[in-house]
Amino acid sequence: MKHQQEEKIQLKVDGVSAGKRLDVFLSEKVQNYSRSSVKRLFEKKLISSPHTSKLKPSLIVEEGMLFSLTLPEPETIDVIPEHIHLDVLYEDADIIVLNKQAGIVVHPAKGNAKGTLVNALLAHCKDLSGIGGELKPGIVHRLDKGTSGVMVAAKNDLAHQSLATQFSSRSLSKTYLAFVYGKFKDESGSFSTAIGRSQRDRKKYSQHTLKPKEALTAWKVLERFSCGVTLVEVALHTGRTHQIRVHFSEAGFPLVGDITYGGEKQVNRIQLKQLKLYLSKLQRPALHSFRMNFSHPRTHDELSFEAPLPNDLQELLDVLRKSEPTLS
Fold it and tell me: Domain residues for 288?
């Protein structure tokens, strides 16, 4: 397996993080790093600062302090086939189209070596395209852990190359359904703010980034609810990490259930007690990959696949319709 190179990063303490322990600050800002992982960085002397030589996990950080970190190469992970249920929408010798369940990670990574979609695919298909590497065989695109719905995987390199080309040329189309907080003035629109890894929090993505990448998200209103929740249809024209969640959140319309991008802060604005209780219990962003259209890699036939709303989001829709009258 090929290792990724070590990564050097620099973090600056902002006003929100001031007063926290250094190990807490770093674990919050460095993606996939727990406090125990950060502790190992201290032990290996991979953390430095121009502000102090007395670096220890319990150091209380102050606003403006800078810290430089060297993140070592990730450890090798053996990907083991696992018999995990897959909701298969379509399958042939070249591709497999799935209705991914919310809560499952797409591919193995540090902290998620087992129980991923790749583990399940290896058991189901026996062989997958090797272009994605040992940790991502067959994976042409991904859905966040909390996102459900349609996704496609490649069984061989021909399919992988064809699908990757369709993604990059934007001839493959993806349509999502999302429940968001807020009332839209218009019936449709788009967001085109470039996004990248956040300067303030490395676990998040934002327009406030040192490396912005083009991102285009189109939307249209499907259903409005007087409680302040809106059901929207979303079309992705680029495929940036967390793109839909970031674009809607930074425009003032965070997704229902999205703890990372501000969705949980909106629950208290809901007046109806039953609806408020249901919204607070939703365990993931209310985002579903509803439809995907693409050309078959071998036959070039135009294919279209849809996945109905999963039970939790269908129940959310039912509760919204039952609890509050829909506005025209």
Answer: 173-327
